[in-house]
Amino acid sequence: ERTGKVLGEFCRCYKEQFGVALFNSVRYEIEGAGGPQAQLLHRKVPLEDHVIYSGNIFQYIEENKKWRNRFCVVPHNYGLVLYENKLAYEREQPPRVLVNSAGYKVLTSVEQYLELVNNSLPGVTPKSGHSPILKCPTDFPLVLWHPYARHYYFCVMTGKEQEKWRAVFQDCVRHCNNGISEDSKVEAPAFTDAIRMYRQSKEQYGTWDMLCGNETQVLSNLVMEELLPELRSAIGPRLKGKAPERQRTWIQVSDAVYRMVYELAKAQYDAAVARCEQERPQLESTIRTDMDQIITSKEHLASKIRAFVLPKAEVCVRNHIQPYISSILEALMTPTSQGFAEAREVFFKEVTDMNMNVVNEGSLEKLVEYMEKLSHLAFHPVKMQSCYEKMDQLKLEGLQQRFDVSSTSVFKQRAQIHMRQQMDDAVYTFETLLHQELSKLQGKDDLCKSIQRILERVLKKFDYDSSTVRKKFFREALLQITIPFLLKKLAPTCKGELAKFQELIFEDFASFILVENTYEEVVLQSVMKDIMQAVKEAAVQRKHNLYRDSMVMHNSDPNLHLLGEGLPIDWSEEYSGQPEPEPAAERRRRAKQVVSVIQDDEGALPYGAEALLQPGSPEPRQPEEAHPGVPLSPPDAVQEIREALAQESLGDGAGAEERLMNGTEGSGASEEGLLLAGAAPRAATQQGPAHDGDRVHCATAASPAPGAEIPSGTGREPCHQCGDKETGKHGDSPPQPRGTTESGEGVQTEF
């Protein structure tokens, strides 16, 4: 009932905003908009046929209260795919868990997690001496926490592994949070504006932390924001058992409700989008026919609203916003510019190191090897972590309360995404120019000089584009902070009077001109001048290496953008000397991994999948998704787990191999049968050195549709061509991971 009510109101807003967004899109297409041209090239498909990371990690299985070893694959779409073990992955068995990590927080201590859990159900806190909701057998936990969906628990053996997995997990969350495609020039702005208008109708202004994930996830968060407090007050007092049991039950209830809401929201939103798309041809025809009249009508309406609103808005800006703009801008500029400077430094260091190695080793094969690694530098979570961490310094202090900014995370993640894009543009431009030069070079000395010359050219372009991107980010962030505050201040005196302006809109144009949107544009104009001036002054003073708007970098590479339109460069295929690689070799190439593993996966793990089972107990065959009615509890005793670990490390390898070869636990399901993807399990139990070029078998995976569990499969006799896990021998035909869609869609919670 609540989902239907919220979605009904939202879909009405969406239909209104769809017409406005369509008009703006067509107008932009006709009129165009000037702006500085980017100097760096943009890669169209950055991670095609690559995998970000894969490795072993221990996951807590709530059904049998055990920690189990899992093989985790992070495909190019940043979904998380968990397999029973690496052997199951290599045999192309369906994954155990599929996760879309949008909306999750990555925690690295049990104390952080327990604090969030205790706050989620007020009044229910375990007494001193009672077992908490979660115990971890090592000192290096990784927890994925979500305010509504199920949680995921992992652990690894060392601090180095924990840091590496944490960087990978945070990259997944960052990418999945940015789930609304910016390529859509109509649907995306219509959706985000409809969300904003709906929340403002409920007197909710300011930034919203849960505007993350794809459209259905955002709508589910919108419903749960209203529904969860009511559920908590209705169900909380009825929960039975000790405090940890009640907390586990509450997490299950919240997750089950969230999945139901997701299904309902998806159906209603898809129907609303379909209706708008059906009307789109007629609307677009009207826009193109009557464009001039619509623009004239809108300008007339804006002039009337401006006369009414502007005097009040200017007073409000002068008294409540103007004095703080420079402080907000400085708070934004320092960490953001440091992050971009660090990205520049990382790029410079990687190329310089490559150049020195080419001098010492002096072969084309080595250059190809280094370029293969460099080409995905921007998507290496560990190497980029030093850039991303600069944004952790972003603090708005008292400004946060004044302007109703609930959290700075939205600005941090947006800046980090800009950093990653800027890094990839620089790398792609560098490799495109180097690829063009290779045919002209005579020897090693020429190659090294060319690399240095191209690096200097690319760094100049990086500095120019970095200034452009950062200035745009600062302007948008300042508007995002100040406009909601201004609208809230003006609402008591202005909002009630807006209805009288409706009569100024011709009925034929009512789908493209809205009084509320025009009012917000007028309010935006009242503060935009001050924001533009503040950013301009920062650029004039050359603060943080910003360039003035009047500075235009003349394109020294007139044909560069034509080069960027060509086919993607495949260094290993083009320079390997094998014109037509065998299918198996081709698949191995496609399985190339961006981040190296810490330990060689093919060796014996510190403890295996059975390590945490009690001695002699059969391997559980049930699916891993908890039934909503089954209470979850932690391992019986941490000491028991530690003893099991010790026994496994001393146990006979033959027995383990025999257990392994007795058949693998399969879990099969169709794409439709996979449930929401909710939190992300990942961490690697790996030791020993590895290299960034490690190859791992993988491909794309399909996103789980919320709704059904993966049923347990029957045991299968292993294929002898695949070999066994202990020796690491297997066939040449690596399978492709399944389970996460190209778009990364899917929702919260495994299955």
Automatic annotation (TrEMBL):
Residues 50-174 form the PH domain. Residues 572-593, 610-635, 648-751 are annotated as: Disordered. Residues 663-690 have a biased composition (Low complexity). Residues 717-732 have a biased composition (Basic and acidic residues). Belongs to the Niban family. PANTHER family: NIBAN FAMILY MEMBER, PROTEIN NIBAN 2. This is NIBL1 protein.
